[in-house]
Amino acid sequence: MNNRLPPAWSKHLKSGLTPKLRPTQPNPPQMNSASRAQTDDAILKQAYSFQQAKRLDEAQDLCLKVLSRTPNHPLALYILGTVCLGYDDEKALRYFARAVAEEPKNPYYHLSLAETYLKVSEFSPAIKHMQYALELQPDLVEALCTLGRAYIEFDKPDMALPLYKKALKIAPNHPQVRVGLAGALSGLGRMDEAAACLKESIKRRIAVPVAYNDLAQTRKFTEEPAELQSILGELRNPKLKSDGAEKLHYAAGKVLNDLKRYAEAFDHFNKAKRASGYKFDIELHRRWIDSMIETFTPEMLAARSGYGNQSEVPVFVVGMPRSGTTLTEQICASHPDIHGAGELNKLRRVANAIELTKSSAGDLGQPMMSISEDLSRTLADEHISYLRERAPTAQRIIDKMPHNFELIGLIGLLFPNARIIHCRRDAIDNCISCFVLKFSEAHGYNCDLQTLGLYYREYDRLMRHWNKVFPGLIFENRYETLVEDQEAQSRRLIEHLCLPWNDACLRFFDRDGSVTTPSRWQVRQPIYKSSVKRWKNYEKEIRPLIDALGDLAQI
């Protein structure tokens, strides 16, 4: 939803959904309400143009100008919300909520508020506002699709399919409908149906790059599909935009990798990275890791003994992406007393709220000093309630957001009895598995091989620190060990969670429920060993990564 306003801006302005000025609002001198409304509309149209061009500071300035003379102008608040998305989602939530409060009958405002709640894993309010948007406008396709996505992420995939099917009848050529329906089907493990849906999207020329990329993820190719030449043909289109080129290069790379044409595959992965344009400040990140290590000391944590909530419900599965976190969650969540909640943003929101962020890398001690025992308990209790919404009776609830490895200090402070499972994998294999997939800009460290290797070193340095300050708290689950002897390692995992063994954990691939990560195809299969030492297929192409990893590269 980043940088998006409601579809069909001009239609939206004519629809009666634009803000109505209230007669009680004060008028500037020599300007009546009608002329002020016309001026505000002109300014906000310009703000919208700036927002679309990603000239966000200028868009923000114009919206604030309108608000200075027309307080709580809902459209100005709404555009400000879109401007904040991506770099300050909490502020975006506040702006959208104010817009809704000012104009509660506008379905687009409810939709954007809902989408932002979904972005930060607040599923209950997201669903509530999307349902209200649909009460106001039952045929609002974007709301149907986003509600479907919310149900998938909330582990209620069966509730998503009827919504996408309804949307399909309303707007059969809408890109969110076709791609979203395929995502719902693949999340349920119905890969053949998902592939058919994506092929139909391609045939209709709907969201073609996205459809090809998603299609490549639906299965492993053992012979060259007709789609490969079509993908290569799309890449030769001189009008192709960079984001489309990125997705198509990933799709070509995936197919070629399956076909063991590794040099060709890696060429496409490199081109995908260049097309993304992502950058990453490894020095700023290194300074932040320094600050985390300096702040979370044994002495600091000992002084806060007794903080937080003593519940044993929370389980955090952490590690680098593509280290086996999804597989680990699926195995554990096959146990009848364990619920897998997927990747939740809740802990990151808490960290952002107390400014435990990279922007404050110079001094993290100050934010931590602000957490009193009462505040720690309030934060932890609210987090437990949030988890309980997903599984009211489960003895353990898993948050498998991989990058929570950065926040283990905060976990230890808020949930001293939480279980932490650290998924670790051969460093080169792990990095290559990251490199060949499309990640969001939040994972900008994945932009080139050298930066990825340097980032991995910082991850390793921080994990070694956490193991020192929390001795015995973190269970290391090595991917290679799990692959070599699934049952023995699975039993160790369940033992770490202090629950009795259940044989259902050995058939994790039969488990119902949605899978929304890039590994959704693999997770539907029994454990296989072909990913171990996968990097040797690319040995000639990955020297920058191996050099950056240094002594962590097990060659």
Q: What is the compact description of this entry?
A:
The chain is mainly alpha-helical and 555 residues long. Helix content is 57%, strand content 4%.
CATH architecture title of the largest domain = 3-Layer(aba) Sandwich
CATH class categorisation of the largest domain: Alpha Beta
Oligomer: single chain
**Low-confidence blocks of residues:** 6-31
Q: How big is the Rg?
A: 24 Å
Fraction of residues in H or I helices: 55-70%
Strand order of the largest sheet: 2-3-1-4-5
What structural class do you assign from the helix and strand content?
mainly alpha
The CATH superfamily of the largest domain is known as: P-loop containing nucleotide triphosphate hydrolases
Give the averaged pLDDT, no decimals. Answer: 89
How much of the sequence is in beta strands? under 5%
Tell me, briefly, the overall form.
globular
Count of DSSP helices?
Answer: 28
| Topology, number of strands | 5
Describe this structure in words.
With 555 residues, this protein is mainly α. It folds into 2 domains: 1-21 and 31-138, Tetratricopeptide repeat domain (Serine Threonine Protein Phosphatase 5, Tetratricopeptide repeat); 282-552, Rossmann fold. The chain has 28 helices and 5 strands. The radius of gyration is 24 Å and the shape is globular. Mean pLDDT is 89; it is low at 6-31.
Keywords:
five-stranded parallel beta sheet, Serine Threonine Protein Phosphatase 5, Tetratricopeptide repeat, globular, single chain, mainly alpha, Rossmann fold, 555 residues
